[in-house]
Amino acid sequence: MGAIPVRTVTETVDHYVFTSGGDDAHGNPTESFAAAVSVDIWRFNPGGTSEPNLPGQARVITQPTIYLPPADIGPHDEIEVRGIRYEVVGTPADWINGDFAGLVIELRRVEG
User: Fold this and answer.
1) Could you give the CA distance from residue 22 to residue 4 in angstroms, rounded to a whole number?
2) The domain that contains 68 carries what CATH number?
């Protein structure tokens, strides 16, 4: 029987867990995040950017993806990769690639 392959950690990112900071004047939860926790990842795919044509705006949307071992990361959390902070888009998905299983997390940053 062969050795079990090991997935190599390529870098560490910071994970900010969303916490409700109370309600605003309209009864909606205000955004607040716990202190960052380091998380090892297998791969960072920088993805692409888009510039929607919106009148009076110069918006740039960046949408990278990270692949990592199973972790407790939620859809409202934020991840900082290489000094840039992104929001987690949707619910992290199970990722299976051969003998490896983990998560794939879509990220997004909107500027402008």
Assistant:
1) 47
2) 2.40.10
